[in-house]
Design goal:
Layout (H helix, E strand, L loop, with lengths): L5 H48 L5 E2 L3 E2 L5 E6 L5 E11 L4 E9 L4 E8 L13 H4 L10 E3 L7 E3 L5 H27 L1
Length: about 190
């Protein structure tokens, strides 16, 4: 039987330590170089998404954080009148939080939604990003419910085999609608 020496243990340990330090330094350097660009891309994506969810909006105001945890941005139309509001809301889905941007016009009708981020199952819950699902919310107002079979009235038809994701998106949209009602109520009373 061969006797294990200190050298047999020390050389691989030091080599592994050096490899880990170099890899960590490279990852940290890459992060430092790319973090500003990633943040800039996120801001640009949000701006583009606002125009998608509230097409009538031509000028978008400052994004404000609400006590509820949502954010809101007022949109003005070409005449400078309030076209509606864009909310960012999140709800717990199957794989984690589903972050949703919701456009609501001045009358309280959903004009569009965009899924900003999610960790849902590919081929199932991830189908929430498809236009065929997002369009189910357009034209709706008031509190919405998920239905497996119907997409009329207050019902939003669930994605097949992804009811949890469908409920999460609907919950995020409902939170935005509730905040719109708070804003609308405050404007009428103030």
């Amino acid at each position: 039987m061969k006797k294990i020496s200190v050298k047999d243990i020390l050389v691989p340990t030091v080599a592994l330590l050096v490899f880990c330090l170099v890899a960590t330094a490279l990852l940290a350097g890459t992060n430092m170089i790319t973090k500003d660009k990633i943040a800039q891309n996120a801001v640009e994506t949000e701006k583009a998404s606002r125009m998608v969810v509230l097409p009538e909006g031509k000028e978008f105001g400052e994004v404000k954080a609400l006590d509820s945890g949502l954010t809101v941005c007022e949109a003005k139309n070409a005449e400078g009148k309030t076209a509606g509001y864009v909310f960012t809301s999140g709800a717990k889905g199957y794989g984690g939080t589903v972050l949703v941007m919701v456009g609501i016009d001045a009358e309280g009708t959903v004009t569009g939604i965009e899924i900003l981020s999610h960790a849902e199952t590919p081929g199932l819950g991830a189908n929430a990003t498809k236009d065929s699902f997002k369009e189910r919310f357009i034209g709706k107002s008031g509190e919405l419910t998920v239905d497996k079979n119907s997409n009329d009235g207050q019902n939003v038809q669930a994605i097949t085999a992804a009811t949890i994701t469908s409920k999460a998106v609907t919950s995020a949209v409902n939170a935005a609608i509730a905040e719109f009602e708070n804003i609308k109520g405050g404007a009428e009373n103030g």
